[in-house]
Structure formats: structure tokens, C-alpha cells
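Ex. 9. Protein: Tetratricopeptide repeat protein.
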Amino acid sequence: MASSRTSSSASSPRRPNTAFRLLRGQRSPGEFAAEVRRAAREIGEHVSCDARYIGRVESGEIRCPNYAYERVFRHMFPGCEPADMGFAPREAVRGRGARDSGSAPSDSTESPSGGRIPGNGGGPLDRFDSSKESDVLRRAFISSGPAAVAAASLGGAPGTRTPRRAGEAEACALEQAVRRIRLLDDRHGADHLYRRAAQPLRAAYELLDAETRRQTVADRLHAGAGELAISVGWLAHDSGRFGDARSHYAEALATARVAGDAALEAHAFCNTAFLARDAGRPREAVRAAQAAQRAGRQLASARLMSLLTLREAGGWAQLGDRPACEETLLRARTLFEHGRSEDDPEWMTFFGEAELELLEAQCWSALGDWRRAAEHGGRAVELADPHFARNVALYTAQLSGDLAQGGAVAEAAVAGERVLDLLAQVQSARIRGMLASTARVLRSHARVPAVGAFLTRHDAQAV
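Predicted C-alpha cells for Tetratricopeptide repeat protein:
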């Protein structure tokens, strides 16, 4: 193994990243790292960038940043592609091309926090980050990534229940598994992912029975298992499997209560409220959102409380209680305007101004105020991060439906066609269902050219 590693490194000589060095300009590595961290906070990312990381990039040790850093760099240097910053294509570093050329992925990739993932060793979790995120890679990640790490730590395959010892490496691998699933969902939607998610979730919960020497590690394992249960629950939720989603969210809530983890409890109740609203149980949505807020008050995160308050507003809107909904929306916006903080949970990176606008649009839609719904939906689409195809598709589908209900049928059809374009890369039963509802509203206007074109494409893809 040692000789193979040496030869592979020799076959891929490290080249300094002069383009990135030029972007740093006159700033010291430490000053530039501070700017990277500040830019990350502006877009809701969390990166532990320091002078050493900047040095690793400029020396060529990191040939391609992970997606979190890539989003930050794109935010810092608008119009610059990764190649313009001196980075290699993902497939050349982490995909088949890297393996065929004999490069060493573990030396050229890094975790979202800026450091390497213990126990990962350039395995499936690293190889996953390819621009060609195919079903094959998704299967490799789900079946061989976190599940394999967990199985190794337990001394057998997932499900064998032979607990031994779990430590820092297992906690890190579990946390990374949650990040990877969230990233895949952001880019592709839930349908294909959910079918592959059961095995790593079982392995994660088996880790809770393993011996741990430090309480901090045990706490991280509980939090990681609970967050993974929520992530898998969301995959079920977004793919229309509401019963499965409810079970996974309940499992996460039980884990939170056992561990005394207020942050995990708030997250579990938050998703439970979301599910209850989608399942047509608005009173449960209100109660779950209020329970989430009780747990969330133990944390110093105004943005978290804003999101939880918006979940409550969604329940009031579905109940048709306009005064309660308006009061709750106002409270949510006030909390949102407090800004981000270091205490915001990592899972909330999706919650920016675009998501705020979407959730308010959904409230006005539930109340039947289509004009206001379309106004907020349009702002959500304008503010959406184009790198997250699933979110762009969701926001545009919401806008299309509200425009259709409000009588702006041609505009609704144009927005609907944009969603159809995105559905080539996004798999989400929820979004397809929203678009099908819009199509039903538009059928009586099929003679309008834009509407007819949309319905033809929609019906062809639905076959």
C-alpha cells in the first residue's frame, strides 16, 4: 500500500495555484481566510477557513474545493468559475478520471469544515463529489459510504448488532453522511435517494449501542443519528411517503429527548410541523411548531426561531385564520431581521431570504390571496441560489401555481415550463405534484398558446 501511494502521488505532481494566489492580492493568508469566513456567513455556509487552508489551496494540495467552499468562492468572485480560480474539474480529482490516472483523492479533497474526514481515506464519501452526480454515484455513497464506516466500527455489516467501540472517526463519518445527503437532496431531490437511505440509518443507530470513552463523542453520535433520521425522513416526506416520514421524525424526536438535545428536538418538531401541514393536519402543524419554539428558545438563534415561527404561520394559514397568520408572519420577519449568528444550527443553511419569501408565499396561497402569494413567490425565484436546482424548481413551481390560480395563465405556463426544464435533473414527487395541480388549473385555458405548449410538454413527461 505504501509503495502504491508513493507512486500515485508521483504521477500527479502538485502544481501551485497561481490564479487563486492572484485573487488573494495583497491580503495575508490569515486576512483572506477571515474574508472567506465572513462571505460564508453572508450566504449561510459554515466553513472553518484559516491561513493553513489558504496555503493548501495555493500550494496545489487542494485541487478542487468541496461544494461549501465553492459556493463561498463564487459569492466572493461573481462571474468566476472554479477553473478561473485555478481549480481542477471535480471528475479529474474525485471521479473515475482521478482513479484512472492514479491520483490520490485523499490528498486533494477536504471536508466541509476545512479539514480531512477521519477514517474516510479518499473512499466513497470523497469520490462522490463529482459534477456527474449519477445514480451510480448516489448508490455508491448511500450503500458504501457511511454504512461501510459504521459497519467497520461495529465489527460487521449493518444490522448484525455486534456493538464494540465508537470514537471520533465514527462521529465525523456520521456527521459527514448527513451533509452529503442534504447536498444530494439540494441538487437532485429525494426520490432516488430515499430508496438507498435505510442502510446507513440503521448503521447510525447501531452506533448508539457501541462503547464510547468520551461523553462528547456519545453526544455527537446521538445528534448525528437524530439528524440522519430527520434527513431520511425528509427524503420520505419530499417523495410523498408521509407515513415513513412521520416515523423517522418521531425517531429523531425520541433520540433528542433521550440525549437532552434541545437543538435536535427543535429540528424534529420543525419538520413534524412541516409534514403535518403538507398532510392536511393544520392544528397538529401549529402545535408542533409551537413545541419547536419552546425547544428553540434554549438556543441563541433568532433565525431558527424565525423559521419555527413560519412553520406555525403555515398551520394558521391552512386553518384559514388570517389574523393569527399575519401576526405570526410579522413576528417571523422581525426575528429574521436580527440576522445570522454563530449559534444558528448547521442544518439551517438553506434558510435565507429566498426561503423566507417562499414560506410566506405558501401562507398567502393557503389563504387564497393569490396576488400576494405570487409577489412573494416571484421574489423567492429571483433570490434563489442557482446552484440548488431543487430549490429553484420548488420556488418556481410555487410561483407557477399561484399565478395560475390568480388568472395570470400565460405567465403561469412560462414558469411551469421552467420547472419542466429543471425536472430533468431534479427528482421530487412533491414538485411534480405541485406542477400537476397547476396543469389541472390551466386545462380550461389550453387555447392560450403558452398554456397549450406547457400542457403538451407536461403531459408528455407525465407518461
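Check your answer against this statement. The first helix runs from residue 2 to 11.
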